[in-house]
Structure formats: C-alpha cells, structure tokens
Amino acid sequence: MQRPHIVLIHGAWQGSWAFAAWQPLLEAAGWQVHAVDLPGNDSSPARLADATLDGYVAHVGALLHTLDAPAVVVGHSGGGLTASQVAEALPQRVRALVYLAGMMLPDGFAFSDIIARCRADDPTFFYRGVEPDLLWDATRSASRVPVATALDLFVHDCEPAAARDAASRLCAQPESGRKVRNRLSAARYGAVPRFYVECLRDRSVTLPLQRKMQALSPGAHRISLDCGHVPQLACPDALSAALLPLLADIRSPAQLP
Fold first, then answer.
1. CATH code where residue 235 lies
2. Which of 91, 129, 189, 211 is 20 to 30 A from 152, comparing alpha carbons?
C-alpha cells in the first residue's frame, strides 16, 4: 500500500525544525513527511528575493511536483497563507489543507483585517500579539522575536527545555513573506477539503481570531485542542490522534480546472 504524503509548512520566524517533535509520529503512522524550509527563512536566508507569497508557492509547488501522489498540505500559523495559495495554484496536487492555529484568510484579506473585524464586532476585544515586541533590522525589512516573547506567546505550554530550544532557534523573518494577502477562488482553493486545528489556549493567534477566520472562510472541519500556539510541539500525540484518522478518509482530488 502506498504511503501517503504530508507536506509541512512552517510559520513566520521558523524553519522545518518546527515540526521535529511531530515528524516521528507521522512517520510511525505511515506518512511520508516533507517539512519545507521557505526561502529567505532559517536555512536559506540568502534567498530573500524569493521570500514572497509567490516565491513560497513556487518552492512548495516544486516539491509537490516531485511526489508520486497528491499530498496533504499543513500550514502552521503564518504558514497557512502559503498553504492556501498552494491549493489555489495546484489543487490537483493537494489532497487536503490543514491549518494548525493557521492563518486561513479569505481572498484579499490580511491578518490585520481579521483583527479589525474582531474589534468592530466586539468593542471589548483586546489583542496585543507579537508586533509590539518585534526587533527590526535597520531598514525594517525583517524582524526577529525576542526569546522572552516567544516563550510567553508561542511555547508557554511546551516542555520547558523544548520551549527554550524552539524560542532560541527563531530566525529573522522578511516582511515580504509575512505581510501578504491571498488570491483565492472557490473553483480551485474552495474545492480542496480543509481542516482547522484551533488551539484553545493560543496567546499569539488567539481563539477569537481563529474563530473569526473560520467564520469568514466556512467549510473547514474543526478540531479543538487544549493547547497553545504550537500543537505539534506542545501535544503532538493529541494532535495525531485527533487529525490523522480524519485525513485517512480523504480521497485524492478530482481533476480541477
């Protein structure tokens, strides 16, 4: 029996290492795992010209074309933007989309638009996020997250040693690959099955923001985990138990335009 493919797309300030704790569980469950390093991030900081949404899609798309079958594509946090655009570009190569506390944004939206919608709907809504703590380069074209901020907002519920390691590995993130807007259509992106793993104790992409994205992009199957922003590190066993049986029932995509 052919082992299915799963492609893992990291979020801002990260690299493929962000999935290291989950990858062995996926492999043990029979998946062929492909964790990418987006250009301009972590292991390929020199590729700044490709640190754009189009560059990210081309990078992931090149991988998908090498696989012998369509793959499940997973986007963690800001990696959800790339995952969505990959499905728009190559719907025949994507069996399903999975968002891990991911940015599942409607066509034309930025994450700031989701925050604005939450504030408009609820005057008591408060969101601080990571922005006030970012450390910028001289041209404000790339940012870094201080370790203390990462420990508090991203990995607060992870095992302490693992949390410190992850927080210390965060890299510079080009703004050209972070402040982007998806270009999506119902005929292509909308035809791909979607799963949203919401994280109930997320301090970065907080639950109201996750719920607003789900409301504005309806149709995703919801999975709720009692964890913070990084379920693949905080609770990889629970993530596998909740998600993998659902993915096993997904068929390969039909031929789409």
1. 3.40.50.1820
2. 211
